Amino acid sequence: MAIGRWLGAAIVVCFLTGLISHVLQHPPGWMTGLLPTRPVWGYRLTQGLHVASGLAAIVLVMAKLWTVYPRLFEWPPFRSLAHLVERLTIALLVAATVFELFTGLINILQWYPWPFSFTQAHFAVGWIVAGSLLLHLAVKAPLIRAHWRKKTSDVDAADRRALLAGVGAAVGVVTLTTAGQSFTPLRAFTLLAPRSPDLATQGVPVNRTAAAARVSHASADGWALEVTGPRPYRITLAELNALPQRRVRLPIACVEGWSVNAWWSGVPIGDLLERAGAPPGSALRVTSLEAWGYYRVMEMPAQYAADPQTLLALRLNDEVLSLDHGYPARIIAPNRPGVLQTKWVSRLEVR
Asked: Where does residue 330 fall: left (phi above 0), alpha (psi -120 to 50 degrees), or beta otherwise?
């Protein structure tokens, strides 16, 4: 039962933080204007917890299945209608949880061997996991109550403590060796993390390279930013560099769980929109030079566009952006997923 409680807690944390990530990436229309820009490290925290709790849940699922697997193959398969319903809820919960956790693990490694959209499938199956967990708890409620009232023998208690110690140690090792990709104090222990922020160009890891996006220095030659609005204009890189610059320290955090703080320098988006005659409260559509990709076009709600820390960044850690980091210009905004920090920006459209 203790492993089940740990697993339930991990699933709840993973589900709630996953909802936050989904809403920030794909907000319902009514919620668009409610998304917060503060704290600037909010997404870094929630997505770090999402991946850490998901990895911990993998260990806990394996331990839980090991403790109950003989019951999964009992014969006859069911003894009554109530028993059949119970077993069906367990089958649904196990199947959905295993699918959710292991596809999530493969996603943080950026490997997609399936034909379906990971984001949509992960979101949908997350609701199935949550619903089947609640259903399972409702069906097993009498057994749970009986367990709380039951006294265990000293031998059973010793075996139980040994099992829980082993499982707790395994969860601790997995967390210790992966959480450092987002939790700076543990960075020295990131032996199993898929990303190490310390081993990165300009101090920031790269998920999508310029080569993968089919962007080259040749495609950026003669680049000029197009800004549409009541007073549309085009502006070259040299002209952007001549404008008043702002330097901010913001984290960039990706859905795979890694995050890192960095210094970004560039022109505030609000200044560019004001020059285009954008009315107060205008949202923004951002288009990238990249040839293809789910996030080639990004919608930025008004509160982000107006935030003084949202920049069209030209420099990273006081160096001109490398091509992989979005040269000649990219977006950086507070409390947004990394996939929405568009690189290789070519067009800003006032909405």
From this structure: beta
